[in-house]
Automatic annotation (TrEMBL):
Protein name: ABC transporter ATP-binding protein
Signal peptide: none
GO molecular function: ATP binding; ATP hydrolysis activity
Gene3D superfamilies documented for this protein: P-loop containing nucleotide triphosphate hydrolases
Protein family (similarity comment): Belongs to the ABC transporter superfamily.
Amino acid sequence: MSQSPVVRLMDVSKRIGGRTIIDRVSLEVNSGEVFGFLGPNGSGKTTTIRMMVGLMALSGGDIQIAGHSIKTEFPQAITQVGAIVENPEMYKFLTGYQNLLHYARMNPGVTEQRIHEVVKLVGLSERIHDKVSKYSLGMRQRLGVAQAVIHRPKLLVLDEPTNGLDPAGIRELRDYLRLLAREEGTAVFVSSHMLSEMELMCDRVAILQKGQIIDIRSIRAAVEETTHTAENVLFEVDHPDAALGVLEGHSSGRVEDGALIVTADRSTVASINRRLVEAGINVYGIRVKSKSLEDQFLEVTAGDTIG
Ligand SMILES: Nc1ncnc2c1ncn2[C@@H]1O[C@H](COP(=O)(O)OP(=O)(O)OP(=O)(O)O)[C@@H](O)[C@H]1O
């Protein structure tokens, strides 16, 4: 089934003070897709996003949202966008529900039923009547996303949504963004400078470097396929060196950036986990590292700051 993309960037450029910050960026995101925008700090992610959500004018090219040009049909284009670019504004002394109710009143056509729907989607039902001041960062973000999608935009844009979240928070974010994409057909556009997070969250990623797209590729299918063959698997543990010792003679591994990386297939992952736990090592997370994409990202961004 062919469908037209929800958002289409066509040769988008931005020049500031004679300097080209964004250089002919083209990409498309489809309905129901979680799309990652990956690049080191300063590569131009925020600038691109600011143009997508109408906070900054384009120097060249065009952006279409649901078929409407952001340059010539701004109102039609922008009503199809929900976004969290800076920290979402919330009344901390009100409950999550009261915040959404207040926001809904400013959006004609948003019913109380819709509020309940978005609260459920972001998994905030149990805490929605608590004051926002009692919320964790992850919960505030859920509320921000609920607010951003309350008017059923076709496109949701989030700038570095994983910043400040712990691994559990990142997993939850991934789960509800995927749910939103699946249930409502929203096209979700997420920026990050962390490849490992993008791998878990997205269907496709674009890699940005110095204002140019270097590569766009599918990842989710690749990651899911590789869980059945030997892959690099990352174990988040409290004592990686001790964990490596525990596995000696059983599996080959290494310690990288404070995590244990083991080459293992799906069934061995379970037994490695058991072995670590039995040895008194705390395991906080296990995930497949997609080697080729990681290598490629490091290669193309070599010399840049990666976060
Ligand atoms: N208003 C501006 N005037 C001049 N230069 C700017 C302006 N906004 C951004 N830049 C420059 O454009 C480049 C891209 O910045 P941008 O914030 O888009 O990158 P980023 O990928 O989002 O990085 P980060 O993750 O650090 O925010 C940087 O070199 C930045 O210094």
